[in-house]
Amino acid sequence: MASSDGAVDDASRIRREIEALKNERSDIDRQISDLETQLRGLQSKTEVVHNDGLAAHGLSPDLIYRHSRHLMLPSFGVQGQSKLSKSSVLVVGAGGLGSPALLYLAACGLGKIGIVDHDVVELNNLHRQVIHSEEYIGSPKVESAAAACLKINSTVLITKHQEALRTTNALDIVSKYDIVIDATDNAPSRYLINDCCVVLGKPLVSGAAIGMEGQLTVYNYKGGPCYRCLFPLPPPTTACQRCSDSGVLGVVPGIIGCLQALEAIKIASSVGEPLSGRMLLLDSLSTKIRIVKIRGRSSQCEVCGENSFFTPQHFKGFDYEKFTQTPLSVAPVKLSLLTPDFRITAKEYKQRIVQGEAHVLVDVRPEHHFKIVSLPNALNIPLTMIEQRVGDISSALKEKQPNSSGSSPHLYVVCRRGNDSQRAVQLLHKLGFVAARDIIGGIESWAREVDPKFPTY
Ligand SMILES: [Zn+2]
Could you tell me the EC number(s) of this protein (predicted)? Predict the structure, then answer.
């Protein structure tokens, strides 16, 4: 026992040391990139003085060399590059879409990039949010993203907005940029960003990726439609998925995010034809990309239409969470549908297992979730199948012996986070299983409160 305790102590000491060294390394990286930025700034100032006659387009020898492959493109050239260097883009969300968009925007030679994000880097972000790395887990995404951008190009000006975009700060932040990229994943943010862009007259490059599919379009560009012209009313809340709930193949937002950078670069440099009034639909499973024509600006649009009176004041007073029936925060919604009598905590459930209580545990997650990880002896009946599979629950209960107290076996329900389990219990009560109870917070609280080694996803 003593030697295994010693090994555990050693392991935690080493982990602490690694953590401390990683923190030191990030600090040093940041200091280096700050100093490099300062140095580049000084160099470009002296170069301009020496090359006054040559650099009519404002590009220093360093920048000419850095962007030579852009400059050699006949359709892009010095003119496109020069416009880029005077433009600014705001990227809202440094996640799956924002990651590739920001990397390419930093590389391309834009004058200024703004990054809005209130979140921190987590391990389960890294399969798609390629701007972040393991050393930044637990750090703010804006810090991680800004450091990655500056590593590529220390001459770009980066402004970090470590906050969620809300009606209280959006006008102020968005007004500082020429073009906006919506790289968020929820309905209230989409409406909020759209309306803010309409009010301030900014083009909006909008992207979405969910599962194996992606979408891209440009709103509010030179008389083209805005998001509300197409979707005057928000979708039903159940149709509004987020990748934290439904999964996403990492490379799909990667592709859409790159396309968002492309559209922003085209608008900033006045090169090519931005994807306004059209929408790109990507089906990654069949590798099909379709461009569909979408409706033009609607004269009836509440925000950009002919008779619209949507002012900055209206924007500030608009309740986007209420309008879309969805919270702005990315924190998962916690429902409370049952009275405390019909709920037990993960710890209480563990005690009942230890006491040998006769019971049946039904896990109502979809089958492919159940395959990732499950609690011992759980019976998987997805929420949508409960009515069809009532018989399975009855048989499972019958197979159990009554408890020593004589009471019949208990019925518990679990899911991932404790919302679907409550819906299932409500349904089971209606179906006659009147004592069914749910495990509060699902397998996530089991992992948190009972077994820290239990995998979460
Ligand atoms: Zn509109």
Answer: 2.7.7.80, 2.8.1.11
